[in-house]
Design goal:
The chain is mainly α. Keywords: Membrane, Transmembrane, Transmembrane helix.
Length: 107
């Protein structure tokens, strides 16, 4: 069998980036921006539209900056790992004391 030369694209293993957001943060940003737009439309029925647009722009800017912070701090998958770590229990409750184990009886 002959040795074949297969060129590898240099950008193949790089993270997906858009305006500084990495990977999954792009999807989070889209969902939260769409939610902010819907919220702005609902709020515009109660307050003047200028105030609703201003509030919507502020919420979108805050969402983008928070996600940009998490993207730069934790990387592409770090935020998901941080959420998973926060759901782990701090302590494990032991229902049987260690003295009752066979290893400790002869000592």
């Amino acid at each position: 069998m002959k040795n074949q030369y297969i060129p590898i694209q240099k950008g193949l293993q790089k993270d997906v980036l858009y305006k500084g957001l990495k990977a999954k943060y792009i999807r989070y940003c889209l969902y939260l921006v769409l939610t902010a737009i819907m919220l702005g439309l609902v709020i515009s029925t109660f307050i003047p539209i200028i105030w609703a647009l201003l509030l919507m722009a502020i919420v979108i800017a805050i969402v983008f900056l928070v996600l940009l912070f998490y993207s730069r701090t934790y990387g592409a998958n770090g935020f998901v790992k941080k959420l998973a770590d926060s759901q782990k229990p701090d302590t494990i409750k032991v229902s049987n004391p260690f003295e009752n184990l066979l290893l400790w009886k002869n000592r």
